[in-house]
Amino acid sequence: EINSRKLHGERNVFKGIFGNPFFYCIWTFCFVAQILIVTFGDKVFSCARLSIIHWAWSLLFGLGSLAWQQVLLFIPIEPFSKCFSAVYRVCCPCLYKKQLKEKDEDKGEDKGEQPKSADQKKQKKPSKKSDSDEESDTEHNPPAPGKYATIGHLTNATVVMKPPPIFARYMLRKSVDRLNTEFQVINAFRSRLEAVKNKRNEESVEQKRSSVANIIDEEV
């Protein structure tokens, strides 16, 4: 759990660990719960108690995963990425070309480049303008915002962030899709509850009407 806090090659996996109370509360709960389950849950969870030596070995293996993470960080990623990209290129050539095309489009949008047509290439270079003319042109005809352009003028306090990597965008899209499915389930469950509630109200109204009709018949 501690190693999974850093996914982009950071070595200090403990950095900012106390800034996330949800993480260390859940981590502490899991740690204590495992000790209680192994110690007192022999019949319920079908496990046996551990001796002090066994607990020491288990803690040693747990701490060894932290050291193993540091060893894995020394392994270069580029050879493996080239190998996997070659396999991906051979197995899925269509998807590989599509991915390359999307990368080229993202790079072009990051640089602010726009595809030039043949007519634009044939045009002559514009004449030099003064600074006042350029300022007036930018005021009347502001440039079209790109994919990561900012709104308004940049100041000294403005921080221009780099676009997120492909993996981060994929995880963000995946989390958004999961939230959408959860919202759909909640809406369906709510509509079902409302339908059941309306049906019960109609049944209660019909019962009241029938009871009132029976009372009137008896009196008559």
Q: Would you mind describing this structure in some detail?
A:
With about 220 residues, the chain is mainly alpha-helical. The protein has 3 domains: about 1-75, no CATH class; about 75-105; about 165-220. Helix content is about 65%, strand content about 0%. The protein has helices at about 20-40, 50-75, 80-90, 95-110, 120, 130-140, 165-220. Helix 3 packs across helix 4. The N and C termini lie far apart (about 80 Å). It is found in: Endomembrane system. It is a multi-pass membrane protein. It holds the Pfam family Cation_ATPase_C. It comes from Adineta steineri.
Low-confidence segments: 145-151
Number of strands: 0
The topology string of helices and strands comes to HHHHHHH
Report the end-to-end length measured between terminal Cα atoms: 78 Å
What's the helix count? 7
Class by SSE composition? mainly alpha
InterPro entries: ATPase_P-typ_cation-transptr_C (IPR006068), ATPase_P-typ_TM_dom_sf (IPR023298)
Membrane topology: Multi-pass membrane protein
GO molecular function, one term: P-type calcium transporter activity
Pfam family, one: Cation_ATPase_C
